[in-house]
TrEMBL record:
It comes from Discostella pseudostelligera. The lineage of its organism: Eukaryota, Sar, Stramenopiles, Ochrophyta, Bacillariophyta. Gene3D superfamilies: 2-enoyl-CoA Hydratase, Chain A, domain 1, 2.30.42.10. PANTHER family: CARBOXYL-TERMINAL-PROCESSING PEPTIDASE 3, CHLOROPLASTIC, TAIL-SPECIFIC PROTEASE. This is PDZ domain-containing protein. Residues 221-438, 928-1135 form the Tail specific protease domain. GO terms for molecular function: serine-type peptidase activity.
C-alpha cells in the first residue's frame, strides 16, 4: 500500500499520514496556492538566466568565427549544468530516446581489458555463522565477486559475459579481447581509446543489422573476425533461483535487478521455495544496481505481513508528493505504468497482490551485498535490517549509498529531463544516501558523508544513516595480482589447452576435477619457464604504465643516470617478479580454482558435440525436480537447450560454474551474475518511468513537427527555460539557478575553443582591468595559501594587481585537453572477518587493524601544506616603497585577516575609489612588532613595458602584454633608448620632442632587442600600435576575417620611429602568443627585423570580441582569424566543438588537433624569404635558452628559495656588496636538507608521480620485499640529486641572490641583474652589434625592397574590444 501525505512528529514511527476529510482538503488547497506562488517566483528567478542565455546563444550563432549549431550548444549547456546536481539527473535528447527504443545489442558485456576476480572466503563466512541463530550453511566460494586487480592495459575491451542465444552462439567467448568494431579500431593509448559508452554504442544498432567484430583470443596469436546479428536482448530480473547442493533446505535467489516484473518473478520463486519447505534463504543482491523502487516495495511485501511499514520517500519539489510504503496490496497505476502495460480490470492484476509468502520469523534469511549494491537493492536490504529480519553479509563495509530516485519528464523537443525527485527512507527513518553533491541533495549539510546520524533497528541495534547499508558481517576479499595477470595473459588458457591435449581420454577430467599438487607444480613450472623465455612478461603486466621505464628515462634526461640508480632499478624489477611468483604459495586456493575452471572449460569445448551452445548452471541443481531458472511468463527469456546434456550431467552435482571460456577468471565463472556492468541497467529507481502524455515515438515526432518553425535560437532557449522550471518544481532539493546557469554556459563556451568564455560579474570586472591595464587600488601584489575548507586544493596565488591576460593566458596556452591515467589501486578491507557490533562499524577497530599499514601519505602532505599555508598567511609578492616582498598582511583598515581568509577577500578590501585612504597592518620577518602604513588609493596603472635599457649601443625592451597603452609605452621606451642618458641631465628650458625627451641624435641606437618571450597577447589594436613603430609607412600589418566579423585590414598610417639603420631583433619562445605574434609576424613578413629564439611561437591566430551583456556580465568569444602581411594565418591548432556527452563529467571540452606539417602552406616575405602558415612564427636565428637543472626547478617551484630568503632577512642586513658566499651557500644546503627531512619539500619530486604510483601498487599487492627495494631506489635518487648542489653551484647561487634581493630591490633592478646571465639576450645583442649575420638573414644587399599591395580596402575598426 502506498499513501501520499505530509509529515508527522518525529516520535511517530510513521513519517506521513494520508490526506482525508476536511483537513486533507485544506492541505491540498494550501499546496495548490503555494504552487501558484512558486510559479511566479520561478518566473522572476529564471528571467535573468533565460535572457542572458538567449543573448549569448544569439551572439555565438551570428558572429562566432565558425558556424555553430545552437541545439548542440544547448545540449552541452544542459548536460554540464545538470551534472553539478548529481550523477543521475540528466538531459536525454530526442535522438537518445529513439536510440533507446530502437537499438538492440549482441548479448555480450565488455569492459576494459585486464579485470579479474577476487575471492570472499566461504569457509570464513561459514565459521562466523555459528553466531547466528539457526545457522545457515554457506558453501565454499559462495561469496565470490568481481573486482579490478590493477592489470588494466589499453589493448581493447575484454568480453566478460557472452550470452547463449546471442553472442556466444556466433563464436564470441568470455575472455576474448575486442580490437575493432566494423573496421574501427578501439585500441590505443588512454587518450585515443574510445570510452566504454562509445564501444557499447558501436555494438548497438537497429534490430536485425549485423556488426563485424575483430578480436584476439588469449593463447592464440592470430586475430579472428566474426559477424554478429543484433537482437533484442532480454535480461531476467532473477537469473537463478534454486537450492544448494550441499543442503537442499537452503534456498538461493540471485536478484539481479528491479525491473517492472521483478515482483512477479520473485513471487513465483518464493512460492517454489515455500513448496520445498526451505529453512533458510540466501538473497544475493551483490552488484544489483537497483531499478524500480516500487518493485522493491513489491518484493518486501512478500516477506512481511500486511500493513507493515516499509519506508517512505520525500522531496523538495511541488510536482511529486511525498510517499509512504506499506506491505500488502499495491496499485500499479500509481507508479507510472503505461496503460498498455496494465490489464483492463482489477481481476486481471492492476493491483499487485503483496501477500506474505516467506515469513522471516520461520525462515532464516541472509542477504549478500557489496559496494556495488545500490538504490532499490539498498532499500530492500534496509527494510530487512531495520526490522531485524535478516543478516547482511558482504565483502565491503557498506553498500554504495544511493538513496535517491529519478523520474523522466518530457520536454517540448521530444527529449526528456531525468531528474532526482526524492530521497527514500527505510523503516527506522534513515536515508542511505552517502555522497552529497555540490549543488544537489542536501548539499548544505556539512560533512554529512563522514558523520551519519544514529538510528536504531526494531530490536535496538545501532545503525547509521548516510552511509549506505553497513553490513552485519564482513568478509575480507582474497585477491591475487598473479591470478589477474595469468588470466589476462592467457597463461591459464595455454596450460589448460596443453593439459587437455595430453589427457583427452582421461576419465578424471570432469566436474569432480581437483588440481592436485602435481598438476599445480607443473603449472607453476610452466609459468616460470614462459616468463624466462620472454613469452610471459610478468613485470610488464604488473607495470603496465611503464613506471620503472619512465623513472629510468627521467634519470637520463636529468643527468642522474648513476650506476647506483640503474642497479637499484634492476634489483627492484627482479624483486617484483619474485613477489609475483610467491603468489603461487600465498594465494594457492585462488590459483588452483581458476586452473580447475579453465581445464574444465577447455574439456567441455573438446567433448561437446555442438560448439555453439552449452548450459550454464549456477550453484548446483535447483532441487526436487524444479527447473534451473525462474522467469516471468511474459518475459521472452530463452531457456537453455539440452544439446550438452552429457556434459551438463557432470556439473549438476557441484557448486561450480562450468562456463566455456578462453579466460580463466571469476568474471568468466560468475559473469552471468553481474549484469549491471551494462550501463543501461545502472539507472536508478524510476529510470523507465515516462509521463503518459508522451508514450511513443509517434508522439515525439508530433512534438518535433510542431517545433519545426521555431528558429535556431528560440528552440534551445525554450528548452532551457523549461528545464529550469522543472528543476524548481520537481528536484529533490532547492537549486541555485545562478550557479547552474554559470556552470552550463561556461561548459558551452569551453566546448568551442579555449578562448571563448562567459564572464560573470566579478570576472567581467577583472577582464575590463586587463583590457585597460588600470584599476583603483594601492598597487600591491599579494599571494595566499590554500582554501582551507578544501583540504585537497593546491596553493592559490592571487594578486591585488591582476597580471595582464590576453587571449592566451596560462590556462589558454593548453593546446589540447590534458589526459592522465588514473592510478590503479588494489585495496581490500582491513579485517578478514568482523561482526558489526549492533549495526555500527567499529572505527577504532579498523584503526587498530590498520596499525601495521602505511599511513596515507597524500593526506599527510595535504595537511602539511594546509598547516604551512595557515602559518604563511597573506604575503606581499611585489610592493611599493614602505613595504617589502614577504611582508605578512594582518589587517586592512578594520578588517582583520585570519588564517582562513581568502586572497580575493583581502584584495577587495585593498581596492576602492581613487583618493580614499587605506591602512595596512603587516608583520615583517625579523621585526617583532606589527607595522601600519596608510596610503591613498589611486588609479593603478599596470605597465606593459617592464624594463628598457641601453647597453653599448644595443637597446632592450621587455614587453609583457598588450593593454590599451602598450603602443604609447613602447614608443616612449624607444625614444628614451635613442636619446640615452642625456635626458636625465636636461633642464626645463631644453627643447623636447613629442615623447617629452630632449632632442638629440637618435641614430646612436645601433640595435634593439624587443623581448616578447612569454607575452600572452592582449588587444589587437595595441598590437597594431606597436607594429606601426617599426614597419614602413603604408605597410599592411594584419588583416582579420570572420563569419560575422567585417573583413578588416590594418595598415601603418605613420612613419616608424625606429631609424632604418637600427637593427631590430624580436625574442620569442613557445609562450609568445596572439598579439605578440602579430607584431613578430609583421616584422618578419616585412623584413624589418629578425625573429630570435628556440623554435616556434605558440600559434594563436584567433581574434576574440568582448561583448557586454546584461547584469554586468560579458562574453568573450572568437570572431575571426587574423592574417600577417604575407597572407598567412599562424594558427597552429584546429578546434572543433566538443561532444556534449563530455559535459556529464563537469564540462564539455573542445576537440583540437595540430596542423600537420604537410598541410602548412608556403608564403613569401617582402625580400622573398619563405615562411609557412599553420604553426606560429618560426625563428630566423636560433638560440637555445639556458636550461635549468632539475634541482633549480625543484627549489623554485617549492618556494624553498623564498623561504630561505625570509629566514636570511631575519638575521642579516643587506649591504651594497651583498653576495652569496660559500658560508651562506652551505647554510642554504643545510636548510634544504632539513626541509627534506621534515617532508616540506621532496627533492625527488621529478620522479614522485612514478614512485608514488609504484608504492601504491606494491602496498596493495602486499609485496613487502619490493617495497623495501623501492625505498632504496628513492634514497639513491635523492642522493644523486643532491650532487647538483656542486655541479650547478653557480646557477643556484645566482638564483638565491636574486630571491634575497627581491625583498629589497624594485623589479627593474632585478630584471637588469637577470639579463646579465640571459644567454639569449646576450647572444642576440652580439648578433646585432656585429651585423653580418643580421644582414645575411634579411638578405638586404641582394633583393630590392618590396612593398605589398593591399588586396582589400582599408576598413575602419569595428566598434568592439577585440582581443587576441
Amino acid at each position: 500500500m502506498v499513501i501520499f501525505g505530509s509529515s508527522l512528529s518525529s516520535n511517530d514511527n510513521q513519517r506521513y499520514v494520508p490526506f482525508f476529510g476536511w483537513k486533507g482538503f485544506q492541505q491540498i488547497s494550501s499546496k495548490i496556492n503555494n504552487a501558484w506562488q512558486k510559479i511566479e517566483e520561478v518566473e522572476q528567478l529564471n528571467q535573468k538566466s533565460v535572457s542572458l542565455y538567449r543573448n549569448i546563444l544569439g551572439q555565438l550563432e551570428q558572429r562566432y568565427v565558425d558556424e555553430v549549431e545552437p541545439m548542440s550548444l544547448f545540449e552541452t549547456t544542459t548536460r554540464a549544468m545538470l551534472s553539478t546536481l548529481d550523477p543521475y539527473t540528466m538531459y536525454i535528447s530526442p535522438q537518445d530516446i529513439v536510440k533507446r527504443q530502437q537499438l538492440v545489442g549482441i548479448g555480450a558485456f565488455v569492459m576494459k581489458a585486464g579485470d579479474s576476480p577476487e575471492f570472499l572466503d566461504g569457509k570464513a563466512v561459514s565459521s562466523l555463522m555459528a553466531n547466528v541463530p539457526s545457522p545457515v550453511a554457506l558453501p565454499t566460494r559462495l561469496l565470490r565477486s568481481t573486482k579490478s586487480q590493477g592489470v588494466q592495459n589499453n589493448d581493447g575491451y575484454r568480453v566478460v559475459l557472452s550470452l547463449k542465444g546471442y553472442a556466444y552462439d556466433a563464436g564470441l567467448r568470455v575472455g576474448d579481447v575486442i580490437l575493432g568494431i566494423d573496421n574501427q579500431s578501439i585500441v590505443g593509448d588512454s587518450a585515443s581509446i574510445p570510452t566504454l559508452e562509445k564501444v557499447r554504442d558501436l555494438l548497438k544498432g537497429p534490430n536485425g543489422t549485423k556488426v563485424n567484430i575483430t578480436f584476439k583470443r588469449p593463447g592464440i596469436d592470430t586475430l579472428q573476425s566474426i559477424d554478429l546479428e543484433r537482437k533484442l536482448v532480454e535480461f531476467p530480473d532473477v537469473p537463478y533461483s534454486g537450492t544448494l547442493d550441499n543442503d537442499s533446505s537452503i534456498g538461493f535467489i540471485k536478484l539481479q535487478r528491479f525491473g517492472r516484473n521483478a515482483g512477479k518473478v520473485m513471487q513465483k520463486a518464493l512460492l517454489q521455495m515455500k513448496d520445498q519447505h526451505v529453512s533458510g534463504l540466501i538473497l544475493d543482491l551483490r552488484d544489483n544496481s537497483g531499478g524500480e523502487l516500487f518493485s522493491a516495495v513489491q518484493i518486501a511485501s512478500l516477506f512481511f505481513r500486511d500493513g507493515t511499514f516499509l519506508g517512505s520517500s520525500e522531496g523538495n519539489g511541488s510536482m511529486y508528493p511525498n510517499e509512504v510504503y506499506y506491505s500488502g496490496k499495491l496499485d500499479l497505476r500509481q507508479y507510472g505504468y503505461r496503460r498498455s502495460e496494465l490489464p483492463s480490470s482489477e481481476n486481471d492484476g492492476i493491483f499487485f497482490d503483496g501477500k506474505q509468502i516467506i515469513d522471516p520469523d520461520d525462515t532464516k534469511i541472509i542477504i549478500l551485498t557489496n559496494k556495488r549494491t545500490a538504490s532499490a537493492a539498498e532499500f530492500l536490504s534496509g527494510v530487512f535490517q531495520d526490522l531485524d529480519k535478516a543478516i547482511i553479509i558482504g565483502a565491503d563495509e557498506s553498500t554504495l549509498g544511493k538513496g535517491i530516485g529519478q523520474r523522466e519528464m518530457w520536454l517540448p523537443d521530444g527529449g526528456a529531463l531525468k531528474l532526482t525527485y526524492h530521497e527514500f527512507y527505510t523503516p527506522s527513518g534513515r536515508c542511505v544516501q552517502r555522497k552529497q553533491y555540490q549543488n544537489g541533495p542536501v548539499h548544505n549539510r556539512e560533512n554529512i558523508d563522514q558523520v551519519g546520524k544514529a538510528f536504531h533497528t526494531k530490536n535496538g541495534r545501532l545503525i547509521n544513516d548516510r552511509q549506505g547499508i553497513e553490513v552485519d558481517y564482513m568478509v575480507e576479499p582474497k585477491t591475487s595480482l598473479l591470478n589477474a595477470i595469468l588470466s589476462s595473459s592467457g597463461a591459464y588458457f595455454a596450460f589448460a589447452t596443453e593439459f587437455c591435449a595430453q589427457h583427452n581420454q582421461a576419465s578424471h577430467i570432469n566436474a569432480d576435477l581437483v588440481v592436485n599438487d602435481e598438476v599445480y607444480a607443473d603449472f607453476k613450472s610452466f609459468v616460470v619457464k614462459e616468463e624466462r623465455r620472454g613469452n610471459l612478461n610478468l613485470l610488464d603486466y604488473f607495470d603496465e604504465q611503464h613506471l620503472l621505464r619512465k623513472i629510468a628515462q627521467l634519470s637520463d634526461e636529468s643527468n642522474h643516470a648513476s650506476t647506483q640508480i640503474q642497479r637499484s632499478l634492476a634489483i627492484l624489477r627482479r624483486q617484483v617478479v619474485q613477489d609475483l611468483l610467491d603468489d603461487f604459495d600465498t594465494c594457492n586456493e585462488i590459483i588452483r580454482f581458476e586452473l580447475e575452471q579453465n581445464i574444465l572449460a577447455q574439456q567441455l569445448r573438446i567433448s561437446s558435440s555442438s560448439s555453439s551452445s552449452t548450459s550454464l548452471f549456477l550453484f548446483g541443481k535447483f532441487g526436487k525436480g524444479n527447473g534451473d531458472k525462474v522467469t516471468d511468463d511474459d518475459q521472452n527469456v530463452e531457456e537453455d537447450t539440452p544439446a550438452d546434456e552429457d556434459a551438463n550431467a557432470n556439473t549438476r552435482s557441484f557448486l561450480k560454474v562450468a562456463l566455456p571460456s578462453f579466460l580463466a577468471g571469476g568474471i568468466a565463472t560468475l559473469g552471468f551474475l553481474f549484469l549491471p556492468l551494462l550501463a543501461d541497467y545502472n539507472d536508478a529507481f524510476n529510470g523507465g518511468t515516462i509521463n503518459n502524455s508522451f508514450q511513443s515515438s509517434e508522439g515525439m515526432s508530433k512534438v518535433a513537427a510542431e517545433n519545426k518553425n521555431v528558429n535556431n535560437v528560440n528552440q534551445p532557449v525554450i528548452l532551457f527555460e523549461t528545464i529550469l522550471n522543472d528543476l524548481n518544481d520537481a528536484y529533490v532539493d532547492k537549486v541555485d539557478v545562478q550557479k547552474l546557469f554559470e556552470t552550463g554556459v561556461k561548459a558551452m563556451t569551453a566546448s568551442l575553443d579555449p578562448y571563448t568564455e562567459f564572464e560573470s560579474r566579478l570576472e567581467a570586472r577583472e577582464l575590463e582591468e586587463s583590457v585597460t591595464g588600470k584599476y583603483g587600488g594601492v598597487g600591491l601584489v599579494i599571494r595566499g595559501g590554500t582554501n582551507l575548507k578544501l583540504l585537497s586544493e593546491d596553493e592559490d596565488i592571487s594578486s591585488e594587481e591582476k597580471p595582464i591576460v590576453g587571449g592566451s593566458s596560462k590556462e589558454e596556452m593548453i593546446e589540447s585537453p590534458s589526459t592522465s591515467d588514473k592510478p590503479l589501486s588494489i585495496s581490500s578491507p582491513p579485517v578478514a572477518v568482523r561482526q558489526n557490533d549492533g549495526g555500527r562499524v567499529n572505527k577504532l577497530e579498523k584503526k587498530a587493524a590498520d596499525k601495521d599499514e602505511d599511513v596515507d601519505l597524500d593526506e599527510i602532505e595535504r595537511k602539511r601544506a594546509r598547516k604551512k599555508s595557515m602559518e604563511d598567511g597573506i604575503r606581499v609578492v611585489s610592493a611599493f616603497e614602505g613595504m617589502r616582498v614577504g611582508d605578512k598582511l594582518l589587517a586592512i583598515d578594520d578588517f582583520n585577516i585570519k588564517p582562513t581568509t581568502a586572497v580575493d577577500e583581502v584584495r577587495n578590501h585593498l581596492r576602492g575609489e581613487p583618493g580614499t585612504p587605506v591602512s595596512i597592518t603587516f608583520l615583517r620577518d625579523g621585526v617583532n612588532e606589527p607595522q601600519t602604513i596608510t596610503i591613498e588609493r589611486s588609479v593603478v596603472h599596470i605597465p606593459d613595458v617592464k624594463y628598457f635599457d641601453p647597453s653599448d649601443g644595443i637597446g632592450y625592451i621587455d614587453l609583457s602584454g598588450f593593454a590599451n597603452d602598450a603602443g604609447r609605452e613602447v614608443r616612449y621606451a624607444i625614444r628614451a633608448l635613442q636619446h640615452g642618458s642625456s635626458q636625465l641631465a636636461a633642464s626645463d628650458s631644453d627643447v623636447r620632442d613629442d615623447a617629452g625627451l630632449v632632442a638629440t641624435d637618435p641614430t646612436k641606437l645601433k640595435g634593439l632587442v624587443l623581448d616578447l618571450r612569454s607575452n600572452p597577447g592582449g588587444l589587437l589594436t595595441s598590437a597594431v600600435d606597436v607594429a606601426t613603430l617599426f614597419v614602413p609607412h603604408g605597410s599592411d600589418i594584419v588583416s582579420a576575417k570572420g563569419r560575422g566579423f567585417p573583413e578588416t585590414l590594418y595598415k601603418s598610417i605613420t612613419e616608424p620611429i625606429l631609424d632604418p639603420k637600427t637593427r631590430l631583433a624580436v625574442l620569442v619562445n613557445e609562450q609568445t602568443a596572439s598579439a605578440a605574434e602579430i607584431v613578430a609576424g609583421a616584422i618578419q613578413d616585412l623584413d624589418v627585423g629578425v625573429i630570435v629564439g628556440k623554435g616556434r611561437t605558440f600559434g594563436k591566430g584567433l581574434v576574440q570580441n568582448v561583448q557586454d551583456l546584461p547584469y554586468q556580465t560579458a562574453l568573450k568569444y572568437t570572431v575571426a582569424k587574423y592574417y600577417t602581411p604575407s597572407g598567412r594565418c599562424i594558427q597552429s591548432t584546429v578546434y572543433e566543438e566538443g561532444s556534449s556527452a563530455d559535459a556529464e563529467n563537469g564540462g564539455a571540452k573542445y576537440k583540437s588537433k595540430k596542423v600537420a606539417d604537410k598541410d602548412r602552406n608556403v608564403f613569401l616575405t617582402a625580400h622573398g624569404r619563405q615562411v609557412k602558415d599553420g604553426g606560429g612564427v618560426e625563428v630566423d636565428y636560433k638560440i637555445e635558452p639556458q636550461k635549468a637543472s632539475p634541482l633549480e626547478v625543484i627549489l623554485l617551484n617549492s618556494g624553498t628559495y623564498s623561504d630561505y630568503a625570509a629566514e636570511w632577512s631575519k638575521s642579516h642586513m643587506l649591504t651594497d656588496k651583498f653576495k652569496v658566499d660559500d658560508s651562506t651557500y652551505k647554510d642554504f644546503q643545510r636548510f634544504v636538507e632539513q626541509r627534506q627531512k621534515e617532508g616540506d619539500i621532496k627533492l625527488e619530486v621529478v620522479y614522485e608521480a612514478q614512485l608514488k604510483e609504484l608504492q601504491k601498487k606494491l602496498k596493495a599487492s602486499k609485496f613487502d620485499s619490493a617495497r623495501r627495494e623501492l625505498d632504496a631506489l628513492r634514497a639513491d635518487i635523492i642522493k644523486d640529486i643532491k650532487k647538483d648542489f656542486s655541479v650547478y653551484k653557480a646557477e643556484i647561487t645566482e638564483d638565491l641572490e636574486q630571491t634575497i634581493l627581491a625583498r629589497y630591490l624594485p623589479d627593474s633592478m632585478l630584471i637588469e641583474r637577470g639579463l646579465r646571465s640571459d644567454v639569449q639576450v646576450s647572444e642576440t645583442a652580439k648578433m646585432l652589434k656585429d651585423g653580418r649575420e643580421f644582414d645575411k638573414l634579411l638578405a638586404r644587399s641582394n633583393i630590392p625592397e618590396k612593398r605589398y599591395e593591399s588586396t582589400s580596402a582599408i576598413m575602419s575598426e569595428p566598434d568592439l574590444r577585440s582581443r587576441l
